[in-house]
Amino acid sequence: MNNIHNVLQGPCLTEKANLQQELKNQVVFKVHPEANKIEIKEAVEKMFNVKVGEVRTVSMRGKQKRVGRHIGYTKDWKKAYVTVAEGEISFVDEL
How far apart are the two ends of the chain, measured CA to CA in Å? Predict the structure, then answer.
């Protein structure tokens, strides 16, 4: 990935993500499916000026959707759990 803006596609706003953010100082992002952990770490550090401790990724499968009698699927996507290092500013203030 050349551009850091292509790596991070947006925050993942769910109840589980909010709980992780409050308890474990983790932030969850939707990322490009071909992005690796090193690229995700560099993108978060450059965009938010924080020190990243750890990155975990999960590949999510698209869900089955039905419209009338036609069945289709949503896109597969990738999710990254980013742990911010201790002593850094929390994302709660910035987001």
Answer: 24
